[in-house]
Here is the input.
Amino acid sequence: MRPLLLALGFQFLLLICAGTTGTVGVATAAPTPSPAAPVASKRSALDLRQEDFRAVIARAKESIFPAVAYIRVVTEDAGGGRPRRRTASGSGVVVSDTGEVVTNWHVVEKAVEVRCLLNDGRAFHADIVGSDKDTDLALLRLRMKSGERVRAAKLAVSARPCEGDFVLALGAPWGLNRSVSFGIVSCARRYLAGTSEYNTWLQTDASISPGNSGGPLVDTNGHIIGINARGTTEGGTLAFAIPAETVALVVPRLRKHKEANWAWTGLQLQPLRDFERDIYFEGDSGVIVAGTDADSPARAAGALPNDRLLRVGGKPVRALMEEDLPAVRLRLALLPQGKPVVLDILRAGKPLRLTLTPRAKGGVEGAEAAFERWDFSAKAINKFESPTLYFERRSGVYVSAIRYPGNASDSQLSQNDILLTVNGRPVATLADLRREHKAALDKFAQGGPRRVLLTVLRNGQRIQVVLDFSRDYTLR
Here is the structure.
């Protein structure tokens, strides 16, 4: 079987490079030659199977390739004390003829300019409609003329991929547009710790290289079953795609709210059979509460570690293994915000009911800005990204990065310092800090002071820092 698969995979490459076309249809098994078949027949079973796979490739090319977009972005990174612009590339797939394009969050993260090239040669600038880091999805809209239309593809939400199914990964790996790779579904429900908040992943051995991100994963029926997102560049082919059902759930929310608009409960969950920690709980119902986030609805409701959560709003929940956790988290994330819900739990063997009121989760990252001449970057405190700082102060801004060498490093300012005041004036937001920064530079340009006095909170202690910004380190 292995030589046959290799031969078929090689045949895929030949067909794509040569632009082979064929009749679109469902691949069928080649008939077994009769023992009485003439010896002169030159059509082997392998030839017939290869012909079937030509139809598979043709179907993918004709139904999906016209909707694949090559994406080029210009990003602006505020880290390091001064803004820096870079270019990057990725892939996407058009999902409506009015120009909506689905791609990955990480493809357009911090993008200030997005351009898309379609398979028919048309190029468009695009706007970011919304994005969600938790699922690594983003929705773009092409800037098209009134009445203009583009070729779109549909997500196969009802398709249920299984291990061993053949799949194609389409996109622009390493910036090489209109590329396709071939493989199988290695695991239909892969859990990746730290990146499986609300969904498991489709694992495939179809090559997904940098630049493939955001492109479609297609089955042999020409259906989009996932969006390519992660891959390895060494140590064998190991790649992951976001399932179509997750994409179909998130895209309308991005369209409506410009974000996924998840509800937040603050419950930290643990499976009943936690193999990684070598912890196993009796029974096979419910899910274990491992802990609760600070200042969260779950903590306010009275949830405790080791509680067994049995039902949410009267509906049972269950996480036997770690791959069952995303579905439970998703159930919680889709709860109506601001509306109380009853949790049925088991605590020390006794049933108990708690009432929890979910809140909007909001962003999982704080906004960031660079402050030139001061030579540091600052970020808004966020309970998910900077929980330790959030524990000290529920809101505010902190030093996220320092340029070396630079004026901030010379002044002994430290990363993660929480900024409280500038020259005695309170700083609670990035807008406040920008105002003080502009005022200080304007006064300096007119011959004013070359120093500012910063009050910061460092490890729970208030410290004053004098920042001399007279030297321009960009002229080195």
Notes: The domain at 368-475 is CATH 2.30.42.60 (Pdz3 Domain). The chain has a mean pLDDT of 87.
